[in-house]
Amino acid sequence: MVVSPQVVDIGLDPLDRRRRRRRAALRIGLPIVGVGLMAATILAIALYSDRANRSGALALSNDLLATLEQRVALALSAYLDPAVRALRVARETVPDGTNPARLPLIDAFAASLLREVAQIDGIAFADSDGNYVLARRDAAGGMDVKLVRNVPGPRRVTWIHHSAAGEEIGRREDPRDDYDPRTRPYFAGALAGEDVFWTGVYVFFTSRLPGLTVAAGRRGADGRGYVVEIDIALQSLSEFLSSLKIGESGRAVIMDKTGRLIAAPAGIDMLRRSEGTTTTARVDEVGDGVLTLAYDHFRTDGYGHRAIEVDGRRYIAAVAPLASAGRDWALLMVVPEDDFIGFVANNNRKALAMSLVIVALATLLASLLVRQGLRADRGARLLLDRQLAISRQSAAFAALAADAGLFDPSRREPPRALTETLADVGRARRASLWRVVGNGRILRCEDSFERDTGEHADGFELHRDELPQLFAHLLGGEDIEVADAARDRRTAELHRVMMAPLGTQALIAVPVRREARVVGSVWLEDADAAAESREFAQAVGNMIALRMGEAPAAAAREPREKETPAPAPAEKRSFEAELRRRDIDPAMTEAEVRAGVCVMALHLTDPSSMALRAPSGGCSLCDDIVCALQKIAALHHIPYVKLVGHEIVAAAGFEPPATDAATRIADAAVALREHCLALFQDSDRPPEFRIGLDHGIAIGSAVGSDPRIFNLWGEAVRTAGAMARTALPGTIQATEAAYAELRQDFLFRPRGRFFLPRVGEARTFLLSGRL
Fold it and tell me: Quick check: 252 and 68 in contact, CB under 8 A?
């Protein structure tokens, strides 16, 4: 099992980090906990108050429902008792009401009774012979009297009509009327009982409205049975139930023990028509789900108050017996729970909303406290960091003061100690010093130090033609500080040319001024503390102004040949010398040795990506690059192109005459670079290629059997490959020999000094394009 080593940042103090976390936790946690406790307390109080208020409101609602039950019972008693009393009076006053001699008395009694007691619809007298006298009110306010004489003589039915004043206004015979009181339930029930007999609710034949009959009977001395009955209309009782105020939307019905409705408020259809007859409906037949559920609970649990739930809404259901009625009647009431306790929930919501205002204010105060505490901690940390930065800068200035030669204008060695100090104090990934030369057209690197690797580089140049925006702002004396150089127009070109290949993003560039003239610049890349780094860079820029101020004039007076040293002597890169070191006699080889061969090598840094599809479709990236190189080679007359693994080698100069071989190879390299840059940009990939150039000795010969293959090898091929492998991504790196051949027609930028195998330390250049 392989265990990767743990990476520990020794620049951070773990104890200090824990202290900061604890302090931040206290700064933030305590106010949050306080606000949370306050909110929880308010919520607990609100819940307790809601529960207590609900319980109290429900208790009051039970009392209210009990009061309503008593009120309905009293109203029902007041509604039915007058009819019962009138029945008893009639039985005692007119014991033989079917006697024709009693008709005037019955007319007077009935008229008075119907006028005084509104709920009485009619009064009737019957005997066991079938004789019948009925007095009832008519629609005009008068009274109709029906006489049925069954014995003696033939059956005869007569209707006598009276006006509202009591005067007879008409008579008529009705031979089709076959009504016989002896067949009605009330007749037998009244004679069988000792007191009052109550019928069930039924629909009156004449008015087609629900009602009931109360009857009382007696037997005469001759054994005949006499019955007095009074019809009671229930319409007024239903109107009374409609007038009851039970909460906001409660309702009540009166039913018998079988669930059949006696009276119901408006909106409930009590009548049911079936097979030619009309009857009253049962509670569970009116289509009211709440009443139906309350009735079902009553059938299983009996009388009482209970809570039910229908469609997610809670109701209070109350069923109470009505003892004042002659039969087993009951009052059923249902009312939404919110009608009684809705105000409780509403008040609790308002109270909770007002409490939330308090919580919001407390949260605001807590956030201000947290913010103030964090600001205080941040201020303390900034002050401490500032003190540490001042300490580092003081130590750096002391170290620089100990080596005053760093600022001597006559000193030509790279100021490596200065760049190292800049990188350490500014905690930058890379620090570099640049001198303005060539009448402000070139920035030459005095020294560049990379803190991560500890390596120095110097000598490479940036030209104004490549970076016009950067030069315009730097030479104008402007400080440049950008967090993302690729997104700033002043540094976008620099990022593409130099920073992106090196992997840096942020830049601080401080101009170095001498006598109101910009003579150089101090650069810090990817610095941690931007403000402190800028201040230290400005201080260093002021110190090195003297060193840089003298150099440009001297450099301008130097001839071009001294500025760019000539290529290394041929004997240092002699192929024959290498053969002699290998003890091989050149005369023994059949190959042709050429000293003026120019070689270009293309190195693909990620070979696996070459199999990906090209943006144009239908081919891979590798195929696209090779096809483009074949066209470029044909255009620039490049005789030798070979693909080996993930490297491509092209050469010219071994075929006579080849005086322009270096120019053709350089043009081909520039064209190939532009094509590859566009190809990788369209593929949304980084430039995963590098190109190298060299001019020198190479050996070429045909090898193998039929067909024989021309092969090229030697120092120029090997050095071009080394240039390609060490170049920056997306660039063309040329040796000093190639630069010497091409500098008159092409624009180069010095990259620095590098060690080449078998050659030693040599300068390399980046090819930008044609002049």
Answer: yes
Question: Cα separation of 433 and 413, whole Å?
Answer: 13
Q: Are 136 and 121 in contact (CB under 8 A)?
A: yes
Contacts of residue 152, defined as CB under 8 A and 6 or more positions apart, other chains included, come to: none
pLDDT block averages, 10 residues each, the chain of length 771: 44 65 74 81 80 74 81 82 87 83 86 87 90 87 89 86 88 89 88 82 77 88 88 83 83 87 85 77 88 90 88 88 73 85 73 80 81 76 66 62 58 72 81 85 85 79 81 87 88 81 84 84 82 73 69 40 42 32 38 80 78 67 84 88 85 75 90 87 82 86 72 84 85 90 86 64 82 76
Determine contact, residues 649/713, Cβ cutoff 8 Å. Answer: no
Query: pTM to 2 decimals?
Result: 0.44
E strands, 438-506, in order: 442-450, 455-457, 461-463, 480-482
DSSP class per residue in 714-735: SHHHHHHHHHHHHSPTT-EEEE
d(CA 483, CA 376): 27
Can you tell me the distance from the alpha carbon of 441 to that of 455, in angstroms, rounded to the nearest whole number?
27
Q: Which residues contact 619 (CB under 8 A, 6 or more apart)?
A: 613, 627
Give the three-state DSSP class for 191: helix
CA distance 105 to 227: 17
Structure tokens at 725: 């492998």
Looking at residue 283, the DSSP 8-state letter turns out to be G
* Pairing status of strand 251-256 against strand 132-137: unpaired
Give the length of the chain: 771
CA distance 292 to 525: 83
**Rounded distance, CA 120 to CA 207, Å?**
13
How far is it, in rounded angstroms, from Cα 238 to Cα 366?
63
CA dihedral 60, 66, 69, 74 (to 10 degrees): -110
Residue 67 in tokens: 């009061």
Domains of the chain: 56-362 (3.30.450.20), 403-556 (3.30.450.40), 570-770 (3.30.70.1230)
Q: Regarding beta strands 732-735 and 689-703, do their DSSP bridges make them parallel or antiparallel, or are they unpaired?
A: parallel
CA 355 remoteness from chain centre: 29
Distance CA 717, CA 723 (A): 10
CB 217 within 8 A of CB 228: yes
